[in-house]
Specification:
The two termini are 16 Å apart. By secondary structure, the protein is an all-alpha fold. It is built from 5 helices and no strands. Helix content is 45%, strand content 0%. The radius of gyration is 12 Å and the shape is globular.
Length: 98
C-alpha cells in the first residue's frame, strides 16, 4: 500500500464511531496548522508513522489491520504492543513520520 492509500485508510478509520469515542484530536496524528475543526480532506500530512497509526486506529475501530504484518517485519512485536496498549485503553506513543 503506498503512502497516499495508507493515509486515506487512516483518515477513514479515524472517522469510525469506535475511534471517535476515544476523543483523539486529529492534530495528535496529522499536521493541520492552526485549523480548529479540520475536515477529513485536511488530514494529508501525518506527524506519526502511518503504518503504526493504521495499526492503532484499526485496533480502536475493532477491525483488522492491513499494516500489522508489515510493521512486525520491520520490528517484531511492535504491532502487538500497539494493539495491546489500545485494548487496555491507552494511546501508545507512535514513532514520528519519516
Amino acid at each position: 500500500m503506498d503512502h497516499q492509500e495508507l493515509n486515506k485508510r487512516c483518515v477513514e478509520l479515524f472517522q469510525n464511531p469506535n475511534v471517535r469515542l476515544r476523543m483523539w484530536d486529529a492534530r495528535m496524528f496529522w499536521r493541520i496548522g492552526d485549523r480548529m475543526n479540520p475536515t477529513p480532506e485536511d488530514l494529508t500530512q501525518p506527524k506519526v508513522d502511518p503504518c503504526e497509526l493504521e495499526v492503532m486506529l484499526a485496533t480502536a475501530a475493532l477491525t483488522e489491520s492491513q499494516c500489522a504484518a508489515e510493521l512486525d517485519k520491520k520490528e517484531p512485536g511492535r504491532a502487538a504492543f500497539i494493539q495491546r496498549q489500545v485494548r487496555e485503553g491507552m494511546r501508545p506513543l507512535l514513532r514520528p513520520a519519516h
